[in-house]
Predict the 3D structure of the following.
Amino acid sequence: MTTKSAFYDKLNADLDALRAKGQLRSEFELATPQGAEITLTDGTKLLNLCSNNYLGMGNNPEVIEAAHGALDRYGYGVAAGRMLCGTQDVHRRLQRVIADFVGLEDALLYNSCYDANGGLFEVLTGENDAIISDALNHASIIDGVRLSKAKRYRYASCDMDELEQSLKKADAECSGIKLIITDGVFSMDGLVAPLDNICDLADKYDALVAVDDSHGTGVVGATGRGSHEHCGVMDRVDIITGTLGKAIGGAAGGFTAARACVVEKLRQTSRTYIFSNAVPPSIAAGAIKAFELAGEGGNARTALLEKTSYFRAGMRAAGFTIGGEGHPIVPVMTGADDVTFGLFKEVFANGLLVIPMTFPVVPRGQGRIRVQISAVHETTHLDRAIEIFTEAGRKTGVI
Ligand SMILES: Cc1ncc(COP(=O)(O)O)c(C=O)c1O
């Protein structure tokens, strides 16, 4: 039997080992709201190109006003799960707004998209069913899928041949439903999943299609509805999960949108929905306003995509290798871990906050600095970021 003192010693030894390798992560402590320029509590001023604040709503006055109004009207918290006495009209209104925005019949509000994914697969699939999952899907999908008794299949990211092989295998090995699950936008690459091809295969093999569009909702598609709109398959995707913690206000909350019967089944049996407190009313009201702005926000979205193209072009012209396409996630490819950390440290020392991504978050040898463009960035911010990158890239030998 492990003693308590040995248990704590082991934890400390594990943390010391990470510290020794320089891999102990720490958080930057911000003293200011989310924005293009931020200040840390130690007074450091940084240019911020690493938040998911795509549409700049994290500090939008109209969203803040809507949240204030709900705080005054409904109070601070509901102190109950939705099924107890934690459902207010504002929660129901938000669910309607979500369903209409993504173009599905109904929606259910969770505390986060992690919860939405955590409470999805166990409800919809059982031991005779098959879940076919993209290899680069988000951790919350992987964890949610683990809770289901369904047989699991994994295909190389966006590889339609492998997806088809998995569907064939699932047909041979399972008697129940087949469910394909993919991220709408892959957050390490800024790539939109080929949902048109995925839907074609789903039709061919009579499978359901579920999409986690956390990085797509409000950002991609002609009217910002998400990656299903971007790929021209708005009426062919069965289930969409998403977050209210990125483009749509950036506070908290997640959702699952689907046919009414799916949503009702989740409401009745999804454990992360039933056994968790309701989203605070102020957040729900802020999210309603954020959806309204995202729906009207053609100009903000167009400007965001123009700024993204501007940044990509500037970085390419400077000699960097840039991954992805068509999304404000801009991966600056660096390769080996020491190169990635070297570039990161140099740009950080010059006042630019971006995040280094190394193994195991990305495949070994495919390190990168992830840059995220936001509607709050002015051209001057982007020029400054390109300048800092260029100087640091030359100094560290990346370019
Ligand atoms: C693809 C994807 N799914 C789910 C989540 C989790 O969202 P939330 O922060 O609402 O739990 C994230 C957030 O990082 C994400 O990128």
The CA atoms of residues 335 and 365 lie 5 Å apart. Residues 112-114, 138, 140, 183, 187, 212, 214-215, 243, 245, 254 surround pyridoxal-5'-phosphate (CB under 6 Å).
